[in-house]
Amino acid sequence: MSNDIYEVPQSHRDHFQVKLLYVTKSKYDKDWHSITHTHHFTEILYILKGKGTFIFSNKEVHVTEHDLIVVNPHVEHTEKSTTDLPLEYIALGIQGLAFTSPDDSNLQVTFCNYKQEQESYLFYLHQLIEEVEKQHEGYELIAHNILEILLLKIMRKKAFTLEETSTQIMSKNLVFIKNYIKQHFREAINLDTLAEIIHINKYYLAHSFKKSVGISPIEYLIQTRIRESKILLETTNYSISDISTITGFSSQSFFSQSFKRVTKLSPSQYRKIKSSKKNSSNVIQSIIEK
Fold first, then answer.
1. Which of 266, 274, 262 has the alpha carbon at shortest distance from 235?
2. Which one is the CATH code of 172-273: 1.10.10.60, 1.10.510.10, 1.20.120.530, 3.20.20.60?
3. Pairwise CA distance, residues 68 & 124, whole Å
4. What is the structure's pLDDT at 279?
5. Helix axes 172-184, 191-198, angle to 10 degrees
6. Average pLDDT over residues 182-192
Protein backbone atom coordinates (compact mmCIF):
# COMPACT_ATOMS: atom_id res chain seq x y z
CA MET A 1 0.00 0.00 0.00
CA SER A 2 1.28 3.45 -0.88
CA ASN A 3 0.10 6.46 1.03
CA ASP A 4 1.63 9.78 0.03
CA ILE A 5 0.66 12.73 2.21
CA TYR A 6 1.43 16.30 1.27
CA GLU A 7 1.08 19.02 3.83
CA VAL A 8 -0.48 22.24 2.62
CA PRO A 9 0.78 25.26 4.57
CA GLN A 10 -1.52 28.17 5.31
CA SER A 11 -1.49 30.68 2.49
CA HIS A 12 -0.49 34.24 3.27
CA ARG A 13 -1.84 35.49 -0.05
CA ASP A 14 -4.91 37.70 0.17
CA HIS A 15 -7.86 37.24 -2.13
CA PHE A 16 -7.85 39.43 -5.21
CA GLN A 17 -9.97 42.53 -4.62
CA VAL A 18 -11.55 42.40 -8.07
CA LYS A 19 -15.00 42.29 -9.63
CA LEU A 20 -16.00 40.07 -12.53
CA LEU A 21 -18.09 42.46 -14.63
CA TYR A 22 -19.10 40.11 -17.43
CA VAL A 23 -18.40 36.86 -19.21
CA THR A 24 -19.21 36.68 -22.92
CA LYS A 25 -18.81 34.09 -25.63
CA SER A 26 -18.61 35.73 -29.05
CA LYS A 27 -18.29 34.55 -32.63
CA TYR A 28 -17.70 36.61 -35.76
CA ASP A 29 -20.52 36.36 -38.26
CA LYS A 30 -20.88 37.83 -41.72
CA ASP A 31 -20.94 41.64 -41.73
CA TRP A 32 -19.86 41.82 -38.05
CA HIS A 33 -16.98 44.14 -37.20
CA SER A 34 -15.43 44.94 -33.86
CA ILE A 35 -15.18 48.67 -33.22
CA THR A 36 -12.04 50.30 -31.82
CA HIS A 37 -12.75 50.96 -28.17
CA THR A 38 -11.27 51.25 -24.67
CA HIS A 39 -12.28 49.95 -21.25
CA HIS A 40 -11.87 51.35 -17.76
CA PHE A 41 -11.07 47.80 -16.67
CA THR A 42 -8.95 44.83 -17.71
CA GLU A 43 -10.25 42.47 -20.40
CA ILE A 44 -9.05 38.93 -20.96
CA LEU A 45 -9.85 37.13 -24.20
CA TYR A 46 -9.30 33.43 -24.86
CA ILE A 47 -9.59 32.44 -28.52
CA LEU A 48 -11.48 29.17 -28.93
CA LYS A 49 -11.36 28.92 -32.72
CA GLY A 50 -10.35 30.84 -35.81
CA LYS A 51 -7.65 33.28 -36.85
CA GLY A 52 -7.36 37.04 -37.07
CA THR A 53 -5.42 40.07 -35.89
CA PHE A 54 -5.49 42.05 -32.67
CA ILE A 55 -4.95 45.78 -33.14
CA PHE A 56 -3.74 48.27 -30.51
CA SER A 57 -1.50 51.35 -30.45
CA ASN A 58 -0.92 51.15 -34.23
CA LYS A 59 0.27 47.55 -33.88
CA GLU A 60 -1.26 44.43 -35.43
CA VAL A 61 -0.59 41.03 -33.90
CA HIS A 62 -1.73 37.78 -35.53
CA VAL A 63 -3.83 35.63 -33.20
CA THR A 64 -5.13 32.09 -33.43
CA GLU A 65 -6.89 29.45 -31.35
CA HIS A 66 -5.77 29.02 -27.74
CA ASP A 67 -4.17 32.46 -27.66
CA LEU A 68 -4.92 34.35 -24.47
CA ILE A 69 -4.89 38.14 -24.69
CA VAL A 70 -4.74 40.42 -21.66
CA VAL A 71 -5.76 44.03 -22.31
CA ASN A 72 -5.02 46.51 -19.52
CA PRO A 73 -7.38 49.43 -18.76
CA HIS A 74 -7.54 52.47 -21.08
CA VAL A 75 -5.85 50.73 -24.03
CA GLU A 76 -7.59 51.44 -27.36
CA HIS A 77 -7.97 48.17 -29.22
CA THR A 78 -10.03 46.02 -31.55
CA GLU A 79 -9.79 42.68 -33.32
CA LYS A 80 -10.34 41.54 -36.89
CA SER A 81 -11.28 38.06 -38.03
CA THR A 82 -10.35 36.23 -41.19
CA THR A 83 -13.37 35.42 -43.37
CA ASP A 84 -12.52 31.75 -43.85
CA LEU A 85 -11.73 31.00 -40.19
CA PRO A 86 -13.90 33.37 -38.09
CA LEU A 87 -12.78 34.14 -34.56
CA GLU A 88 -14.67 32.62 -31.66
CA TYR A 89 -13.61 33.64 -28.16
CA ILE A 90 -14.51 34.01 -24.50
CA ALA A 91 -14.04 37.46 -22.96
CA LEU A 92 -13.88 38.41 -19.29
CA GLY A 93 -14.26 41.97 -18.01
CA ILE A 94 -12.43 42.40 -14.69
CA GLN A 95 -12.56 45.57 -12.63
CA GLY A 96 -10.01 46.41 -9.96
CA LEU A 97 -6.72 45.19 -11.38
CA ALA A 98 -4.10 45.67 -14.06
CA PHE A 99 -1.27 43.38 -15.14
CA THR A 100 2.31 44.63 -14.78
CA SER A 101 5.60 43.06 -15.83
CA PRO A 102 9.23 43.61 -14.77
CA ASP A 103 10.14 43.52 -18.47
CA ASP A 104 7.65 46.22 -19.48
CA SER A 105 6.89 49.14 -17.18
CA ASN A 106 4.14 50.37 -19.52
CA LEU A 107 2.41 47.08 -20.30
CA GLN A 108 -0.64 47.54 -22.52
CA VAL A 109 -1.48 44.18 -24.09
CA THR A 110 0.16 40.81 -23.70
CA PHE A 111 -0.25 37.55 -25.60
CA CYS A 112 0.36 33.94 -24.66
CA ASN A 113 -0.58 30.66 -26.30
CA TYR A 114 -2.11 27.91 -24.16
CA LYS A 115 -2.36 25.13 -26.71
CA GLN A 116 -0.39 22.73 -24.52
CA GLU A 117 -2.47 23.59 -21.44
CA GLN A 118 -5.80 24.10 -23.20
CA GLU A 119 -7.64 21.35 -21.34
CA SER A 120 -7.07 22.97 -17.95
CA TYR A 121 -7.89 26.54 -19.01
CA LEU A 122 -10.94 25.60 -21.06
CA PHE A 123 -12.29 23.61 -18.12
CA TYR A 124 -12.28 26.68 -15.88
CA LEU A 125 -13.57 29.02 -18.58
CA HIS A 126 -16.50 26.75 -19.41
CA GLN A 127 -17.23 26.30 -15.69
CA LEU A 128 -17.30 30.08 -15.38
CA ILE A 129 -19.76 30.41 -18.26
CA GLU A 130 -21.95 27.66 -16.80
CA GLU A 131 -22.10 29.38 -13.40
CA VAL A 132 -23.11 32.80 -14.76
CA GLU A 133 -25.61 31.27 -17.19
CA LYS A 134 -27.41 29.04 -14.68
CA GLN A 135 -27.03 31.40 -11.69
CA HIS A 136 -27.64 28.77 -9.04
CA GLU A 137 -27.34 29.71 -5.39
CA GLY A 138 -23.87 31.04 -4.56
CA TYR A 139 -22.83 31.35 -8.21
CA GLU A 140 -21.25 34.77 -7.61
CA LEU A 141 -18.80 33.34 -5.06
CA ILE A 142 -18.00 30.32 -7.23
CA ALA A 143 -17.44 32.56 -10.27
CA HIS A 144 -15.08 34.78 -8.27
CA ASN A 145 -13.12 31.77 -7.03
CA ILE A 146 -12.81 30.38 -10.56
CA LEU A 147 -11.58 33.80 -11.71
CA GLU A 148 -8.91 33.79 -8.98
CA ILE A 149 -7.73 30.35 -10.15
CA LEU A 150 -7.47 31.59 -13.73
CA LEU A 151 -5.56 34.71 -12.69
CA LEU A 152 -3.07 32.67 -10.66
CA LYS A 153 -2.55 30.19 -13.50
CA ILE A 154 -1.96 33.08 -15.94
CA MET A 155 0.62 34.53 -13.55
CA ARG A 156 2.38 31.15 -13.47
CA LYS A 157 2.68 31.12 -17.24
CA LYS A 158 4.24 34.58 -17.48
CA ALA A 159 6.10 36.77 -15.00
CA PHE A 160 3.11 38.95 -14.16
CA THR A 161 2.24 40.87 -11.06
CA LEU A 162 -1.20 42.29 -10.38
CA GLU A 163 -1.72 45.92 -9.50
CA GLU A 164 -4.94 47.08 -7.91
CA THR A 165 -6.82 49.82 -9.76
CA SER A 166 -9.62 52.07 -8.62
CA THR A 167 -13.01 50.39 -8.57
CA GLN A 168 -14.78 53.74 -8.38
CA ILE A 169 -14.12 54.86 -11.97
CA MET A 170 -17.35 53.43 -13.31
CA SER A 171 -20.06 51.40 -11.69
CA LYS A 172 -20.64 47.79 -12.64
CA ASN A 173 -24.03 48.62 -14.16
CA LEU A 174 -22.68 51.29 -16.49
CA VAL A 175 -19.81 49.06 -17.63
CA PHE A 176 -22.33 46.32 -18.35
CA ILE A 177 -24.57 48.67 -20.35
CA LYS A 178 -21.67 49.92 -22.49
CA ASN A 179 -20.59 46.36 -23.20
CA TYR A 180 -24.19 45.29 -23.92
CA ILE A 181 -24.56 48.11 -26.47
CA LYS A 182 -21.27 47.14 -28.10
CA GLN A 183 -22.42 43.53 -28.47
CA HIS A 184 -26.07 44.17 -29.44
CA PHE A 185 -26.18 47.53 -31.25
CA ARG A 186 -27.71 45.89 -34.35
CA GLU A 187 -30.78 44.94 -32.35
CA ALA A 188 -33.80 47.07 -31.41
CA ILE A 189 -32.68 48.79 -28.19
CA ASN A 190 -34.29 51.61 -26.21
CA LEU A 191 -33.93 53.04 -22.71
CA ASP A 192 -36.59 50.68 -21.34
CA THR A 193 -34.67 47.71 -22.73
CA LEU A 194 -31.42 48.79 -21.06
CA ALA A 195 -33.09 49.59 -17.73
CA GLU A 196 -34.86 46.22 -17.67
CA ILE A 197 -31.59 44.35 -18.23
CA ILE A 198 -30.00 45.71 -15.04
CA HIS A 199 -33.29 46.14 -13.11
CA ILE A 200 -33.06 49.85 -12.32
CA ASN A 201 -35.23 52.90 -13.02
CA LYS A 202 -34.71 54.13 -16.57
CA TYR A 203 -34.52 57.79 -15.52
CA TYR A 204 -31.85 56.97 -12.95
CA LEU A 205 -29.96 54.99 -15.60
CA ALA A 206 -30.11 57.89 -18.06
CA HIS A 207 -28.90 60.38 -15.42
CA SER A 208 -26.07 58.14 -14.14
CA PHE A 209 -24.89 57.19 -17.61
CA LYS A 210 -24.74 60.79 -18.86
CA LYS A 211 -22.97 61.94 -15.70
CA SER A 212 -20.31 59.22 -16.10
CA VAL A 213 -19.95 58.98 -19.89
CA GLY A 214 -20.93 62.49 -20.98
CA ILE A 215 -23.75 61.44 -23.30
CA SER A 216 -27.04 59.59 -22.89
CA PRO A 217 -27.26 55.79 -23.37
CA ILE A 218 -29.22 56.25 -26.59
CA GLU A 219 -26.71 58.75 -27.98
CA TYR A 220 -23.95 56.26 -27.10
CA LEU A 221 -25.91 53.62 -29.04
CA ILE A 222 -26.29 55.93 -32.05
CA GLN A 223 -22.60 56.83 -32.08
CA THR A 224 -21.69 53.13 -31.87
CA ARG A 225 -23.92 52.45 -34.89
CA ILE A 226 -22.40 55.41 -36.78
CA ARG A 227 -18.85 54.11 -36.20
CA GLU A 228 -19.89 50.74 -37.63
CA SER A 229 -21.62 52.36 -40.59
CA LYS A 230 -18.44 54.29 -41.43
CA ILE A 231 -16.56 50.99 -41.74
CA LEU A 232 -19.23 49.57 -44.05
CA LEU A 233 -19.34 52.74 -46.18
CA GLU A 234 -15.56 52.62 -46.61
CA THR A 235 -15.08 48.89 -47.14
CA THR A 236 -18.22 47.57 -48.87
CA ASN A 237 -20.55 48.36 -51.77
CA TYR A 238 -23.69 47.89 -49.68
CA SER A 239 -26.45 50.39 -50.37
CA ILE A 240 -27.21 53.13 -47.84
CA SER A 241 -30.49 51.37 -47.10
CA ASP A 242 -28.76 48.05 -46.40
CA ILE A 243 -26.17 49.71 -44.15
CA SER A 244 -28.88 51.44 -42.13
CA THR A 245 -30.55 48.05 -41.57
CA ILE A 246 -27.31 46.20 -40.78
CA THR A 247 -26.31 48.77 -38.15
CA GLY A 248 -29.67 48.69 -36.39
CA PHE A 249 -31.32 51.96 -37.46
CA SER A 250 -35.11 51.86 -37.65
CA SER A 251 -35.17 53.61 -41.04
CA GLN A 252 -32.87 54.96 -43.73
CA SER A 253 -34.05 58.52 -43.10
CA PHE A 254 -33.23 58.33 -39.38
CA PHE A 255 -29.84 56.82 -40.23
CA SER A 256 -29.06 59.65 -42.66
CA GLN A 257 -30.19 62.32 -40.18
CA SER A 258 -28.15 60.80 -37.36
CA PHE A 259 -25.09 60.30 -39.57
CA LYS A 260 -25.13 63.92 -40.76
CA ARG A 261 -25.65 65.24 -37.24
CA VAL A 262 -22.61 63.33 -35.96
CA THR A 263 -20.25 63.65 -38.97
CA LYS A 264 -21.57 66.83 -40.69
CA LEU A 265 -21.77 64.76 -43.88
CA SER A 266 -24.46 62.59 -45.45
CA PRO A 267 -23.61 58.88 -45.81
CA SER A 268 -23.24 59.36 -49.59
CA GLN A 269 -20.90 62.31 -49.15
CA TYR A 270 -18.81 60.43 -46.63
CA ARG A 271 -18.48 57.41 -48.96
CA LYS A 272 -17.59 59.65 -51.93
CA ILE A 273 -14.87 61.50 -49.98
CA LYS A 274 -13.34 58.29 -48.63
CA SER A 275 -13.47 56.64 -52.06
CA SER A 276 -11.80 59.67 -53.66
CA LYS A 277 -9.00 59.68 -51.09
CA LYS A 278 -8.50 55.94 -51.55
CA ASN A 279 -8.31 56.28 -55.35
CA SER A 280 -5.85 59.17 -55.06
CA SER A 281 -3.69 57.12 -52.74
CA ASN A 282 -3.73 54.20 -55.18
CA VAL A 283 -2.72 56.48 -58.06
CA ILE A 284 0.19 57.91 -56.07
CA GLN A 285 1.30 54.42 -55.05
CA SER A 286 1.14 53.28 -58.69
CA ILE A 287 3.31 56.20 -59.80
CA ILE A 288 5.85 55.48 -57.04
CA GLU A 289 6.05 51.81 -58.03
CA LYS A 290 6.73 52.75 -61.66
1. 274
2. 1.10.10.60
3. 14
4. 59
5. 130
6. 92
Percentage of the chain modeled with pLDDT above 70: 87
19-164: CATH, from 3.90.650.10, 2.60.120.560, 2.60.120.280, 2.40.160.20: 2.60.120.280
CA dihedral for 5, 7, 13, 19, sign (positive or negative): positive
Pairing, β 77-81 against β 88-95: unpaired
Alpha carbon of residue 214 to chain centroid: 20
Angle between helices 172-184 and 202-213 (to 10 degrees): 90
93 versus 201: which is more confidently predicted? 93
State the burial class of residue 186 (Cβ atoms within 10 Å of its Cβ: 0-12, 13-18, 19+). middle
